[in-house]
Amino acid sequence: MSSWIRDYLYLPLAKVKIRGGSAGGIDIQFDAVKASVGVTGSLFLTWLIMGLWHGAAWTFALWGMWHAVFIFAYRLTSHLFDWLPDRAARIGGWGTTLAVVMLGWLPFRAPSLEATFALYARLLDLRSYRGLALRESFYLNVALLLLGMLALYWMTTTRNAVTENRWVRASADIGSLAVAVFVVFIFLRPISQFIYFQF
């Protein structure tokens, strides 16, 4: 669906020609066109339509606009981080993207805009994090899992005597799989309906 919307909605609206096939990405230099009103308008219109495709509600429109705003912000500010080493930029990008996308799912699942803003307000209320049990402290668990994933990434891409040791690598693999299985069982709950069957 994303590829179809990109090829048949976003690119025609932006009046951007595809050089070659669009499979696996497109060869576009956004630096030259990011200030263009047409390209920016196409970005927001495309995401609005994609949100409303999921349902005719303001929550889905907000979900679409959320993504459009952050993509636009990235296009405007990405050059500010050119001084970072490649690995730091990748890790920072992954962490930021994960946080933005996860926060973007709140309006997608919330029953109304009021509920969405109440959830965002609750996230910003630091007092609400006190006294949470393991099962309830979802965002803390997500942060810990992210740190673990970054540590595993570092271990698999760094070459030194410790990370090259097969026992260390085997222990890391077994430990990460055990944690993944543990987390699945902690948050496991019966799902009665696949979400896209609602649309």
Characterise this structure:
Helices cover 66% and strands 0% of the residues. It is built from eight helices and no strands. Helix 3 runs antiparallel to helix 4. About 3% of the residues have low confidence. The chain is an all-alpha fold and 199 residues long. It is globular.
What key phrases describe this protein's structure?
199 residues; 66% helix; mainly alpha; globular; single chain
Write a brief structural summary.
The chain is mostly helical and 199 residues long. It has helices at 2-14, 37-54, 58-77, 86-109, 113-124, 138-157, 161-164, 166-186. It contains eight helices and no strands.
Q: Residue share in helices?
A: 55-70%
Overall body shape: globular
Q: Order of helices and strands, N to C?
A: HHHHHHHH
Task: State the secondary-structure class.
Answer: mainly alpha
Strand content: under 5%
Q: For the residues shown, what is the average pLDDT?
A: 79
Radius of gyration: 21 Å
What is the β-strand count? 0
How does the major sheet shape up?
none
SSE diagram, text form:
Blueprint: H1 2-14, H2 37-54, H3 58-77, H4 86-109, H5 113-124, H6 138-157, H7 161-164, H8 166-186
Helix pairs in contact: 1-2, 2-3, 3-4
